[in-house]
Specification:
66% helix
Length: 138
């Protein structure tokens, strides 16, 4: 039986990443620039190469999180740890982007993805740590 808590958080993250990636390709002003590090190229190229964008996580992150959650057996620690770690990375990645703090011009819809990213990261951390705690008590 699948772990619905982990899978739900991971699928929510994957869906949000797809949505944010589509928005980012339409708004070239939101390249991924964590801590101000600028990589040459277009937002579309960055997304394709797995760099991400200012509001979209790199595509390998939701792929790995969803795969781990899908493969998770009830009480398994590895997938729970993977989902929680990727959730924490999403939180940190969102917080270090200039678009999060309004230092890059962005549309209202693009800015709205920032709190959704933070909520997805928090959901993944909470789902993963909840499963890790419940695996210890068994």
């Amino acid at each position: 039986m699948r772990d619905r808590l982990l899978l739900g958080a991971a699928v929510l993250f994957a869906a949000n990443t797809v949505f944010a990636s589509v928005l980012a390709t339409r708004d070239p002003e939101v390249p991924g620039e964590p801590l101000g590090l600028h990589v040459p190229g277009s937002v579309t190229t960055h997304l394709a190469l797995g760099w991400g964008a200012g509001v979209a996580a790199p595509w390998p992150m939701p792929v790995v999180a969803t795969w781990a959650a899908w493969r998770a057996a009830q009480g398994a620690r590895g997938p729970a740890r993977t989902v929680a770690t990727i959730g924490a990375m999403l939180l940190v990645g969102t917080l270090i982007e200039p678009v999060t703090w309004g230092r890059r011009p962005a549309t209202r819809l693009v800015r709205a993805t920032v709190p959704v990213n933070l909520a997805c990261g928090a959901a993944m951390v909470l789902a993963g740590t909840h499963r890790l705690r419940s695996a210890v008590t068994r």
